[in-house]
Design a protein that fits this description.
- The complex is a heterodimer.
- By secondary structure, chain A is mainly α.
- Chain A has helices spanning about 1-20, 25-60, 65-80, 85-90, 95-110, 115-125, 130-140, 150-170.
- In chain A, α5 (about 95-110) runs antiparallel to α6 (about 115-125) and α6 packs antiparallel against α8.
- The radius of gyration of chain A is 19 Å and the shape is globular.
- By secondary structure, chain B is mainly α.
- Chain B has one domain.
- In chain B, about 80% of the residues lie in helices and about 0% in strands.
- Chain B has nine helices and no strands.
- Chain B has helices at about 1-20, 20-30, 30-60, 60-75, 85-100, 105-120, 130-140, 145-155, 165-190.
- Chain B is globular, with a radius of gyration of 21 Å.
- Classes of the chains: A mainly alpha, B mainly alpha.
- At the A-B interface, α1, α2, α5, α6 and α7 of A face α1, α2, α3, α6 and α7 of B.
Amino acid sequence: MSAAADMAAAVIIAAAALWGALRGTDVFGAMLDGIREGFSTLLRILPSLIALLTAVYMLRASGALEALTGLLAPVLELLGIPPETAPLMLLRPVSGSGALAVASELISSCGPDSTVGRTAAVMLGSTETTFYVIAVYFGAAKIKNTRWAVPAALLADLTGFVASALCVRLFFGG
Amino acid sequence: MSKMWTAALVIAVIFGAATGRGRETGLAAFEGAGAAVKVILETGGLICLWSGVMELLRRSGVTAGLSRLLKPVLGRLFPRASRDGATMDALCSNVSANLLGLGNAATPMGIKAALGMARLTDTPGTASRELCLLVVLNTASIQLLPTTAAALRAGAGAASPFDILPAVWLSSAASVTVGLTACALFSRLARR
């Protein structure tokens, strides 16, 4: 599985280039434009990442994150979720760059191949910045009564978090 | 955001002082900024590369093809929107862009679909069943290749950055299923 997954990236890139060339697309031009777009996204998130990671590192060093983790640990352990991911789950629906900041800190401090590091990555990859999406879509459509959208979306997020922890344990043990 | 950030800093200082970790907290204030730049440097190349690949897929018609494939499925979920050509096209493009992780392309299409759905309803200001469904579909991540998460892992030296793929797919599927089921359930309750 792991070998196939590692190979997949190279295959996808080569297949995309070949398909584009066969279709007569300007392959290299499209790549460069996409890369440029990715680069401007990075530049856009860097300022908030600097500010947010400063706060995350201070919270971590002060022991406040540990206290929060300890407080939520009994509930999270019941759900099979590593308590260290509590700050990530709390931030994920609210702030995309905040979640990125917390996840990157968890992945580098616990290790990318640790249970906590993997769970953080899967959580980040299987959920979205829920409240941002809700604000953008309902704001654009001038909706005041959002009915069940918020509870349904949060229920989906919660499922994503529990499933992330469960899947990591299932596929990688630990 | 300002309030949250300020609160985080104040809590860190007070907590650090109270637990005798004031010194560590002070030193940590100088670490975060450098760590942020390091994360961007370590993951930036991969994120840019995939952004390029996805743009290539979009231009060579893969997004449009995926969009056509999705039409029958989405037509079932959104019977009312499917009767409006432009709204349905926007909806299909939104979902296919989301699947490919083209966030910048997905949002304008999603907003177009949302505006169309808001126009189709007879109760302005109140979200229709289908609009709720569209929003929940967009708040649940359906991205097939979680490139940012993989890039973070690669930057931290993971042995196999993409080995989380099956776990991400399964979690995403569970989350979307629960989101859609909750929508169906809530709308049935509301009708009563």
